[in-house]
């Protein structure tokens, strides 16, 4: 039997996507990071005919208590008080930091938890138009990642929402090393990472399942590993899948080392969405990496990702009404 809330919401099957202007504005102009990608993707989505299938939501800044679900108290407090040292900040990157960096991080991580709660409550596909901060470890940040939104959302779903099993399906070209270490001893989670074998992080962690790919691999091998990763996800019979959907495996990516085409990336996303739809597993998109030069290739692929999410989300609702 479906709940009243579920029925009520099914009349408006929007693809809910969390976004805040601080995702771009919270990063310094001199930082070596393509910060405009967030507002560029949103602008493109707004111009599409599918935009009517979407609903842009404002994130609630995450609470300190929620951060502590996955992070060390001393690290959390040092960041919140602006007291990380030079070395710790350099390891995270996005430097020089602006005073808005703290608020940005809280919004970005809060958006991930908001999207997760919504998917748990209503089903379908939701997303956060930033994050996928899989290089953040329990007591330090790394590789553009301050706090690990995937690990926090997984813990939040298990501790506060009554879920039993959560899969983290990480298809970004870099290994989800922080997620793997934070969730290593939690049998309620399954961490799966498809990534380029010779890429950052150079010292890999151990996920529940690591599926490394040789550099320069193209669509065929990448998609074979994606299918394997999806099978491993479904075998766990999760209540929800947290999908790190980085597009830095693209052939034009500056940091990627793989040769996945724009079409291959689309096939990847559609395969994930279809399999999760077939099994009625709510899915949350964490945006992940994308650093192509020029950046337009990254923008195009993120645009494809969110458009397909809105289409498959609509299918979810059409099948349930
Ligand atoms: Zn990446």
Strand element count? 8
Structural class: alpha/beta
Q: Order of strands across the widest beta sheet? A: 2-1-3-8-7-4-5-6
Give the C-alpha Rg: 18 Å
Distance between the termini: 13 Å
Average pLDDT across residues? 94
Compute the number of helices: 12
Parts with pLDDT < 50 across at least 5 consecutive residues: 1-8
Description of the structure:
It is globular and about 50 Å long. 43% of the residues lie in helices and 12% in strands. It has helices at residues 4-9, 22-25, 37-46, 64-67, 73-80, 86-92, 101-122, 149-160, 177-182, 219-235, 262-278, 296-320, and strands spanning 15-18, 54-57, 125-128, 166-170, 189-196, 209-213, 240-244, 283-286. Strands 2-1-3-8-7-4-5-6 form an eight-stranded parallel sheet, sandwiched between helices. It is α/β, with parallel strands linked by helices. Bound molecules: zinc ion.
Quick summary:
By secondary structure, this protein is of the alpha/beta class. It has helices at residues 4-9, 22-25, 37-46, 64-67, 73-80, 86-92, 101-122, 149-160, 177-182, 219-235, 262-278, 296-320; strands at 15-18, 54-57, 125-128, 166-170, 189-196, 209-213, 240-244, 283-286. It has an eight-stranded parallel beta sheet, sandwiched between helices.
């Amino acid at each position: 039997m479906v709940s009243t809330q579920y029925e009520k919401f099914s009349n408006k099957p929007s693809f809910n996507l969390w976004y805040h202007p601080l995702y771009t504005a919270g990063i310094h102009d001199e930082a070596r990071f393509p910060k405009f990608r967030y507002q560029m993707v949103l602008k493109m989505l707004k111009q599409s005919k599918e935009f009517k299938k979407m609903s842009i939501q404002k994130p609630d800044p995450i609470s300190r208590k929620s951060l502590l679900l996955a992070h060390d108290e001393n690290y959390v407090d040092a960041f919140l008080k602006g007291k990380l040292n030079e070395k710790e900040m350099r390891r995270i990157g996005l430097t020089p930091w602006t005073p808005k960096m703290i608020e940005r991080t809280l919004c970005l991580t809060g958006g991930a938890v908001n999207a997760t709660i919504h998917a748990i409550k209503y089903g379908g596909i939701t997303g956060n138009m930033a994050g996928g901060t899989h290089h953040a470890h329990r007591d330090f940040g790394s590789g553009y990642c301050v706090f690990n939104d995937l690990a926090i959302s997984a813990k939040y779903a298990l501790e506060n929402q009554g879920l039993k099993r959560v899969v983290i399906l990480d298809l970004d070209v870099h290994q989800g090393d922080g997620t793997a270490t934070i969730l290593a001893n939690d049998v309620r989670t399954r961490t799966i990472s498809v990534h380029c074998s010779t890429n950052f992080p150079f010292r890999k962690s151990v996920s529940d399942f690591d599926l490394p790919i040789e550099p320069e691999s193209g669509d065929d091998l990448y998609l074979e590993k994606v299918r394997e990763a999806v099978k491993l996800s479904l075998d766990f019979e999760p209540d929800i899948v947290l999908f790190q959907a980085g597009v830095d495996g693209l052939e034009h990516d500056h940091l990627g080392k793989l040769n996945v085409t724009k079409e291959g990336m689309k096939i990847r996303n559609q395969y994930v969405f279809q399999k999760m739809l077939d099994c009625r597993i709510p899915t949350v998109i964490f945006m992940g990496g994308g650093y192509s030069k020029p950046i337009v290739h990254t923008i195009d692929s993120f645009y494809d990702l969110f458009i397909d999410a809105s289409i498959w989300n609509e299918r979810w609702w059409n099948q349930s009404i």
